[in-house]
Amino acid sequence: MPLLQPKPSALRPGRGAAAPAPDRVADDLAAGTPEPLRGELTALLGAEKVLTGASDLVRYASDASPYRFVPQAVAVAETVADVSALFRFAHERGRKLVFRAAGTSLNGQAQGEDILVDVRRHWAGVEVLGDDAARARVGPGTTVVRANATLARHGRVLGPDPASAIACTLGGVVANNASGMTAGTTRNSYRTLASLTFVLPSGTVVDTAAPDADERLAAAEPELCRGLLALKAEIEADAELTARIRAKYEIKNTNGYRLDAFLDGATPVQILRGLMVGSEGTLGFIADTVFDTLPLDRHTSTALLFFPTLQAAAAAVPAFNAAGARAVELMDGNTLRASVSVAGVPADWAELPKETAALLVEFRAPDEAAREAYEEAAAGVLAGLGLVAPVGSVAAEGNAFTRDPGRIGGYWKARKAFVTAVGGSRPAGTTLITEDFAVPPGRLAEACEALLELQARHGFDAAVAGHAAHGNLHFLLAFDAAEPADVERYAAFMDDFCRLTVERFDGSLKAEHATGRNIAPFLALEWGERATGLMWRIKELIDPRGILAPRVLLDRDPQAHLRGLKTIPRIEDVADPCIECGFCEPTCPSGDLTTTPRQRIVLRREMLRQPPDAPVTGSLLRAYGYDAVDTCAGDSTCALDCPVGIDTGQLMKDFRHARHSAREERAAAGTARRFRQVERAARLAVAVAHRLGDRVPGAATRLARRAVRPDLVPEWLPEIPAPAARRLPGTVREGAAAVYFPACVNRIFGGPDDARGPNLAEAVVAVSARAGRPVWIPDDVTGTCCATIWHSKGYDDGTRLMANRVVEAAWRWTDGARLPVVVDASSCTLGLAHEVVPYLTEASRKLHAQLTVVDSLDWAADELLPRLTVERRTSSAVVHPTCSMRHLGNTGRLTALAEAVAEEVVVPDDAACCAFAGDRGMLHKELTASATAREAAEVTARDYDAHLSANRMCEIGMDRATGRSYRSVLLELERATRPAGARGAADKSIRPGR
Predict the structure, then answer these.
(1) Closest CA to 425 of 349, 533, 529
(2) What is the sign, positive or negative, of the torsion defined by CA atoms of 860, 864, 870, 872?
(3) pLDDT tens column, 882-938
(4) What is the DSSP string of 932-946?
(5) Which of helix, strand or coil describes residue 193?
(6) Are the C-beta atoms of residues 299 and 366 closer than 8 Å to each other?
(7) C-alpha distances in angstroms, 342 versus 24, 63, 405, 432?
């Protein structure tokens, strides 16, 4: 064991469960998957495709639903052959399988008690079909947002648009027939899916687009084909049932199997194509989808309109529908008030009266003339409404339509955060239930009133929102799943709610979230015994051994919805609001390697379900150090995608701090105190290593990592560049427009080894002077740092020391904040502008509040580019937006600068955090390899003349990932604007170095 390996017990929660939680993982799973299942699955698929540790089982046990079932094993399927092998295995051994993609399902569809099959990791991809992009082939592990990013270039979009589009995958969207804000009954998966490829439980693979698909199916599955046609004939012979089926799908309905597939499909393959939509993984595995795409309609006009009551808002919906609105979204007072936790939402929404409600109304048009016509129709509707402006921000915006993309984006961000924002504000320790139902749109106001009365009667202060244009309402309930009385209250509410929806409104108990475990016991209440019996027969015909997703869609137990409810123990404050929605997962660099932010929180909660010294806790702690803490890049992009801003990256930094010994903290503080010497020594070490070649420093660092600790000693990588120049360029303070703070990484590491011309500091000085905005580098900049070195590792004392030192120095350099500070690395800008603040003394915080910290991208785009003449442009460039740029909100500046210096600029659709994270990619190079795999594949698929970013360590990470040479866009800007005939940057822009 390495000398300084931290003890797992350092991360043991300060308190265990006073009594074991009812849903805690049993002691017999502390060792993970039991034998012989572990060995059998490993032999079947290979060890790399089977997850068997207790940590693996626990992190896959939770999804966005209120349910929690612990699998016996997790299989990571990579190919259709893997899926078919698992089907055969299940038949032979009597096992059950449940598919799991994004885990954003809200009713337990992605949970199982036997073998859980991960079908996200290896199933992503988008292929645009045809010159007009009228169709697209989308892998089932692809998120809706990722698919639409590719389609947007062609002016197209997918029909389904669920609020969870940032995280949910197309396989789940189809399997649940999820629709969203605008899909309704005409743009959902059932209506826009051109074809799909699926694997039946028997192992038969069906491609519905194949011309001979029915012939092949008849040869492989004759009994299935006869059975499907017999059911079709039986349904069509029953006029009353046929009429009932058609009527049920006039409004949104995802409860049970799509019985209209038998009316719409003429052949067995066509029937199966329809049945697979909304089948929730119970009839087969969806391996591939081809969608008919729709026009993007980029010309939008949107309003957020406030009403005195929910009923008043609902009553206005038909008028907007008649005017042609694409989306009409409803939000009640509880939803609006909870949305203040969402970045950008006005703080005074917290003061809105409880009775207030709002409609988010959007018109989308293909051209300007059509948009103007819509706006004229909308004005006519507005004239007849009794709108209110209860708080200042509403009064300021005027209950009016806007074309401003920023405001529109803010409205939709608040709306899409319904589940997470309201869920995040629920009482601590409570479980969240999300339900959705549909009524005829004309009865929406009546349904709102009835729902509010029902909630009050059962003691729930619930939140309501929904797709009002389609009569589709969502509501959230919070209760304590560990308290039997609270569970009984919830059960009584569900009984009354289901009867209300069916008997009073003839509505759908599930409009778009699919049946799931919560509504399965009520299926017959909605559909009747005849239709429900047909659904059981469909299941028995297609999956006679019942190997797929038992109890997910069909369940004869009337209390099934009360089984497996998830308790939510209190954890660290920063993460406690988490409702495990999974919105954070697609952005997480370690998601395909170890754990995601949601899983880090799930594991922590399990530790707190256990009694003190439980064997399961010990097992989880032993894995948590590497799986959760060490391999977290700490980039905190999870906080950007979490609607309530949970920063799991910061939590992992806190855990790193908790693992440090007092000696380690003192040593780290010592490096901060003597950073001038440390910086010079680091630069010298890089120089020596380069003279020795890669083999010697590589072997030496690998040996040190084994002896000391892998998370403390960086590994030398061949991509590490030569050292930076010994001297920074000379500058003068007089007449300077800004103070230039070269980041310490740019004072230690040089630029690309193949670069010609000036280094980065010389380029910034030269191009700034060229634009008439000269910068000054302080004489004593060496030895100062933005403190990210210590902050990222959880060394609080070192962070505190350096944070205060650099702020005091910046105050002095800027002559009391008279000048801005320009920083040439995006992560260092973020550190100096924002991340140092919690570590500052009160005096330093006052100074910091007056400083203006400017990222070099903003400096170049705003201050330099308008004053420069571009003399030459490269043909093509691909850019790497860093995670820090996302935090700073200036990724667009990187693109703008690249467009100024290159004829063609590409932002990869799969661009994401590279996870190099300072030296994290040198501590755990497997993290960067995993995080960059998709972006690297996209970048290396063709040649580019330039590979541009604005953070040296991220550039090194991308060099390693792609084998290409990345450099700062400011180097390219200097080259592009260099006067003809000038050599290097020496057009009288810089003085000799000090």
Answers:
(1) 349
(2) negative
(3) 999 999 999 999 999 999 999 999 999 999 999 999 999 999 999 999 999 999 999
(4) THHHHHHHTTS--SE
(5) strand
(6) yes
(7) 32, 22, 18, 18
Q: Which two tokens stand for residue 977?
A: 């604007």
- The predicted-structure confidence for 148-200, as pLDDT tens digits, reads as follows 999 999 999 999 999 899 999 999 999 999 999 999 999 999 999 999 999 99
CA distances from 523 to 328, 530, 532, 699 (A): 28, 11, 7, 64
Pairing of strands 966-968, 946-949: parallel
Closest CA to 897 of 945, 849, 852, 948: 948
* 237 contact partners, CB below 8 Å, separation of at least 6: none
The string over 249-267, giving b where at least 16 C-beta atoms fall within 10 Å of a residue's C-beta and e elsewhere, is bebbbbbbbbbbbbbebeb
Please count the residues of the chain: 994
Compute the distance between CA of residue 415 and CA of residue 305 in angstroms, rounded to an integer.
13
Which residues face 90 on adjacent strands?
Answer: none
Place of tokens 């509501």: 475
User: Terminal CA-to-CA distance of the chain, rounded, Å?
Assistant: 47
Q: DSSP for 306-348, please give it.
A: EESSHHHHHHHHHHHHHHT-SEEEEEEHHHHHHGGGSTTS-GG
Q: The sheet that has 902-906: what strands, in order across it?
A: 902-906, 874-879, 946-949, 966-968
CA distance 595 to 603: 10
pTM for this predicted structure: 0.95
Contact between residue 602 and residue 615 where contact means Cβ atoms under 8 Å apart: no
Q: If DSSP codes are grouped into helix, strand and coil, which group holds residue 950?
A: coil
User: Would you state the structure tokens that stand for residue 885, as one six-digit string?
Assistant: 């740029």
Ranges of beta strands (E only) in 843-888 are 853-855, 874-879
The pair of structure tokens assigned to 571 is 């954890």
Is residue 474 within 8 A of residue 464, CB to CB? The reply is yes
User: The tokens 């004309």 sit on which residue?
Assistant: 442
Residue with token string 């915080």: 845
